[in-house]
Amino acid sequence: MRGNVRMSVMEAVSSIYRVSQLYISDKAKKFSVGRGQWYVLNRLLFDEDGLTNKELADDLFVDKANITRAVKKLESEGYVYHKCSEEDLRKINIYVTDKAEDMCEDYHKVFMGLNNVLLKGFSEEEKVMAREFVYRMSDNITDYMNDRKK
After folding, report:
1. Whole-angstrom Cα distance, residue 91 to residue 22?
2. Among candidate residues 65, 13, 62, 18, the one with its CA nearest the CA of residue 42
3. How far, CA to CA in Å, does 29 sit from each of 19, 33, 71, 93?
4. In a domain, 37, yes or no
5. Is the pLDDT of residue 47 over 90?
6. Between helices 35-42 and 53-60, what is the axis angle to 10°?
7. Mean pLDDT of all residues belonging to the chain
8. What CA–CA distance (Å, rounded) separates 139 from 67?
9. Beta pairing, strands 80-84 & 51-52
10. In this structure, what CATH number is given to the domain that contains residue 88?
11. Is residue 95 part of a domain?
12. Are 94 and 101 in contact, with CB atoms under 8 Å apart?
């Protein structure tokens, strides 16, 4: 906040994102996972395992070259492996390893800690409202970007 003037929603979201990246980077060091790999591993570990590089790139709105680098780093750390698709041998699916599954709880605690920091001082009702508002904004921009692809 500058003086008594509040930031725009985009400035606030951008600020939260930048500072949250510092929080995540610091906490993720023990997993040898950098910011570039963090969201790829999250997507596979907590949302949907077995995606292709293209699906990851599309889902995360990142170019395929960045996904390829992230997957290579995650493979070298032993968190993911790739396997040819049974339906289409031209496709390569990315899966989490037992090592990734074993650290899942500790890894999830990083997010829970960040959520606790972000929602400090909020009532339970405010926490629900904040989550709903942020997800609506996320859905809005995701829908917009997906519509542009069509």
Report:
1. 35
2. 62
3. 16, 6, 17, 26
4. yes
5. no
6. 100
7. 90
8. 22
9. unpaired
10. 1.10.10.10
11. yes
12. no
DSSP the chain: -BTTBPPPHHHHHHHHHHHHHHHHHHHHGGGT--HHHHHHHHIIIII-SSEEHHHHHHHHT--HHHHHHHHHHHHHTTSEEEEE-SS-TT-EEEEE-HHHHHTHHHHHHHHHHHHHHHTTT--HHHHHHHHHHHHHHHHHHHHHHHHHH-
Range of the domain at 56: 9-118
Does 46 map to a domain? yes
* pLDDT attached to residue 5: 66
pLDDT tens digit string along 67-124?
999 999 999 999 999 998 888 888 899 999 999 999 889 888 988 999 999 999 999 9
| Structural domain includes residue 139 | no
Domain count, the chain: 1
Describe the crossing of helices 35-42 and 64-76 by its angle, rounded to 10 degrees. 90
53-60 vs 64-76: helix axis angle to the nearest 10? 120
